[in-house]
Amino acid sequence: MKSVQISLQMASQVKTFVSIVQKYAYEIDLRSDRYVVDAKSILGIFSLDLSRPISVEIHSQDCDDLLAELKQFEQ
């Protein structure tokens, strides 16, 4: 599993993020404090506190292409 911190401040960023992660077959979770949601779920993401950094947990070791796409959301 790999993990990276991101920030999703606007609804348009959430939409772009979901479009990116839906292309990948492996599981991807978002963690904010004690809450964990499926990164492919727009409703799940909006249930998180988006004013704080979010941890993306990628359940794959071969995810360099995804990490490159997520650079735009890193803090």
- H and E order: EHEEHEH
Question: From the helix content, strand content and strand pairing, which structural class follows?
Answer: alpha+beta
Strand content: 25-35%
Uncertain runs with pLDDT below 50, 5 residues or more? none
Distance, first to last CA: 20 Å
Q: What's the number of structural domains?
A: 1
Number of helices: 3
Query: Which CATH architecture?
Result: 2-Layer Sandwich
- The side-by-side strand order for the widest beta sheet comes to 1-4-2-3
| CATH topology grouping | Histidine-containing Protein, Chain: A
Please compute the radius of gyration using only Cα atoms: 11 Å
Helix content: 25-40%
Number of strands: 4
Main CATH class? Alpha Beta
What's the topology here?
Elements: E1 2-6, H1 11-21, E2 28-32, E3 35-38, H2 42-46, E4 54-58, H3 64-70
Antiparallel strand pairs: 1-4, 2-3, 2-4
What does this structure look like?
- Helices cover 31% and strands 25% of the residues.
- The protein has a 4-stranded antiparallel sheet with strand order 1-4-2-3, with no helix packed on it.
- The longest helix has 11 residues, at 11-21.
- With 75 residues, the chain is of the alpha+beta class.
- It has a single domain (2-73), classed as 2-Layer Sandwich (Histidine-containing Protein, Chain: A).
- It has helices at residues 11-21, 42-46, 64-70, and strands at residues 2-6, 28-32, 35-38, 54-58.
- The chain is globular, with a radius of gyration of 11 Å.
- It has 3 helices and 4 strands; from the N terminus they run E-H-E-E-H-E-H.
